[in-house]
Amino acid sequence: MMRGIGRGPVKMQNMLMELMVLVGVTGMSYGATQRPDYDDTPNPEFLNPSWMASIPDDQPLSEITMPGTHNTMALYGGIYAECQTWSLESQLRAGVRFLDIRVRHVKGNLTIHHGVSYQRAHFGHVLVGVADFLSKHPSETVLMRLKEEFSETYDIYGAVVDYIHRYVHWDLLWHSRLVPTMGEVRGKLIVLQDFSGPDLGMRYGSLDISDDWRVPTLLHVEKKWQSAYEHLEAAPTGNMAQIFLTYSSGAGVFAYPRAVAQRINTQLYNYLRAKTDLNQRFGIICMDFPSAPMIQMIIEFQLKDEIKRGQAFNRVPSKASLKYTISLLKKKMIKGFTVDA
């Protein structure tokens, strides 16, 4: 009888462990993991602040492959709300060029939210952060998807314009629906407008987007990856005049963002690494908890095949283009005489 009682708690413990695996609790980590494909530590392993300098001025943005972050500002609120651990500045300096910004609109105020979770910032902080980065790195451009979240006013246009005038300047923005060339938008912010109103920039809906974010449990991660995989496979032969955007992120009640990213990022990393000898356009790849090596690998799809063949992967701090490498060496040479911006 005592043996029977003893087995009861063990059986209950095993069932609990199975449930934890299903939910994703066993994949839980709090700023402790830095892998080649996944990073939830506070700072990137290395930086890539000026990688767009090597892109020709006449190259359309739709032909560029670039890294992005899903729910860029979602650093707080617990395991179901947090999608990143790097600050906005760190993400931009690491090489991220697509931002996913969600604002709650209350009486003209635009606070940053991920669902119910307030992210300790407002839209002005984002604008200033982007403007500051672009002033220091004028060779770059930043794309920002902007949408309303955790409010239903469906009328944020006026507040957005007010924030732009209050915190930055009107000329910071690219004011056209047309896909620009790299030269046209160096030093500029491109708003991908996911709300109604007159044009502020490009329309988010004009992109070719894959965002199957619902991942009910970790058993559904493979279905999520298949969706992202198919869109990535379509991008190289898709409409080259249209920007492709693939989200690798996902979450659900029984699969929080970290647990999904720990699995999806590995598949994404392996997929891209297998493609590194190909000169292909993948568009924007938008991730939760990306790593510096993953960002670097995405950036390198701009490189020519002959350059890429001569380089080995895991090179630290980066494997940027020849032009950027020379620029980086020059910066190191004068580091003792100037303060790094």
Can you walk me through this structure?
The protein is α/β, with parallel strands linked by helices. It has helices at residues 2-23, 88-94, 123-136, 157-167, 221-234, 257-273, 292-299, 305-309, 322-333, and strands at residues 66-69, 98-106, 109-114, 117-122, 142-148, 189-193, 202-203, 208-210, 244-247, 284-287. Helix 3 (123-136) crosses helix 4. Mean pLDDT is 86; it is low at 1-7, 9-29, 303-329 and 334-341.
Radius of gyration: 21 Å
Give me the count of strands: 10
The secondary-structure element order is HEHEEEHEHEEEHEHEHHH
Category by helix and strand content: alpha/beta
Low-pLDDT segments:
1-7, 9-29, 303-329, 334-341
Helix content: 25-40%
- For the report, how would you describe the main beta sheet? 10 strands, mixed
Shape: globular
Number of helices: 9
User: What oligomeric state best describes the polypeptide chains here?
Assistant: single chain
Terminal CA distance: 71 Å
Beta-strand residue fraction:
5-15%
Chain-averaged pLDDT: 86
